[in-house]
Specification:
Oligomer: single chain
Strand order of the largest sheet: 2-1-3-4
CATH architecture: 3-Layer(aba) Sandwich
CATH topology: Rossmann fold
Shape: globular
Helix content: 25-40%
Distance between the termini: 36 Å
Radius of gyration: 17 Å
Length: 154
């Protein structure tokens, strides 16, 4: 994404936010008029533990430069252990992405409560800066005519 006034590249960030904590923190940041990076698109999910890693892979494949997954603090999950499940899924996905050659900072996990609008703003700005340093993502797309690493004869 290009910034119209400066012509500089800005990363596209997708944020999966827990409905009970992180989304409420984002809402608090908005109602408190706390500034944060405008190139973040939010998807509200019931729990960070319910995010299918394929959603994140599909986002990266579609050209999203970075993904933030944010859930409740340990011990505060509305679904008891959902945030721990989300953290484990995120860690496993990071190792898989590293295997694919995708930089570690593209997918990040954080804890943000409903009362932490300022922290939400800080986390979003940090993720944006980290992804900006990495540059645009190489898309995870299949090239035409290639299947299983072998070019088809057609």
């Amino acid at each position: 994404m290009r910034n119209g006034s400066e012509g500089t590249w800005q990363p596209k960030i997708l944020a999966f936010l827990c409905n009970w904590c992180s989304y409420a923190g984002a809402d608090l940041a908005g109602t408190s008029r706390i500034q944060y990076s405008p190139n973040v698109r939010v998807i509200r999910v019931p729990c960070s533990g319910r995010i299918n890693p394929l959603f994140i892979l599909k986002a990266l494949q579609s050209g999203i430069d970075g993904v933030l997954v944010s859930g409740c603090h340990p011990g505060d999950c509305h679904y008891i252990s959902g945030n721990y499940i989300g953290r484990r899924k995120s860690a496993t996905l990071k190792r898989f992405l590293e295997f694919l050659g995708i930089e570690e900072g593209r997918v990040q996990f954080s804890w943000v409560s409903a009362a932490e609008g300022g922290k939400f703003s800080q986390v979003v700005d940090e993720v944006t800066q980290d992804v900006k340093k990495l540059g645009p993502i190489r898309r995870l797309v299949k090239k035409e005519g290639w299947e299983f690493g072998v070019q088809s004869s057609e």
